[in-house]
Amino acid sequence: MCNRNTLIKLLGHECPKNYWEYFVEAEKQRQDALADLALCRTKHEAVVERLAQTNVTLSKATRDKNRLELALEEIEKIVTAKDVRIAELQARLPDSFPKFTWGLVQDARWVADILIRYRIGLNRYPMDSDYFISCFDDVMAYCLWHRRTYPRAYQYIPEHRDCENIAAKLWADYSSDTGCNNMGFTIDWSGGHSYNHFIDTDEKLWTMEPQTMKVWEFCEEKATGIYDSELGFTLMSEIRG
């Protein structure tokens, strides 16, 4: 910014006082405008940088979304295949006790490791030393047969024959009838419910709702609501009749 003497040299004569004041004010406004412009440029650069970061994040989110959709499609295929298997089992269910085989014999450590691997939050009580493990089809065939053979046991009566009674009977009868102890009786205090879990010969942990015979592979992310699986316990033992 020039001073008054510099301005006099430029003009060749003394400038009026009011003109000098006007010039000083105009120069001040120019400097303020330059400062505002610099600030706007800084803000613009910040916005451009944030926009670039947002585009990177959006691109990653899109890739994650696509991967998730593919994973969900695979899960849907698995669920559909499982439902088809259950429907086929029900269609060819024998009138008498279904054929049953032991696919694996494992120890309590094997059972505990699977429960830990699935990160189930319930207290885990493997109560036997040896475990006789049957395949998914055999477990479901027995459960479907049990429901058809003992329909009264599945008739819900509040406080008398409710969730824990139904789950406990299926668990006890399964072990007693088959000699396998890969099914658990679960009391889920965090979900306020009782149901069953079982492990199959493929080393998968399944959640079963005995009142409807719906079954799904246990997943920590899906363990919500009445199947919260955070506070409670699951028992796995052999019951001999």
Task: Characterize the structure shown.
Helix content is 51%, strand content 16%. It has 241 residues and is an alpha+beta fold. The protein has two domains: 1-81; 104-236, 2-Layer Sandwich (Beta Polymerase, domain 2). The strands form two sheets. The chain has a six-stranded mixed sheet with strand order 2-8-4-5-6-7, with helices on both faces. Strands 1-3 form a two-stranded antiparallel ribbon. A hairpin with a 4-residue loop joins strand 6 (205-209) and strand 7 (214-217). The longest helix is centred in the first third of the chain and has 75 residues, at 17-91. The chain is elongated, with a radius of gyration of 36 Å. 23% of the residues are buried. The mean pLDDT is 80.
Secondary structure: elements and pairs:
Blueprint lengths: L3 H8 L5 H75 L12 E4 H10 L5 E4 L3 E4 L2 H14 L13 H16 L4 E6 L4 E7 L5 E5 L4 E4 L14 E5 L5
Parallel strand pairs: 2-8
Antiparallel strand pairs: 1-3, 4-5, 4-8, 5-6, 6-7
Helix pairs in contact: 2-4
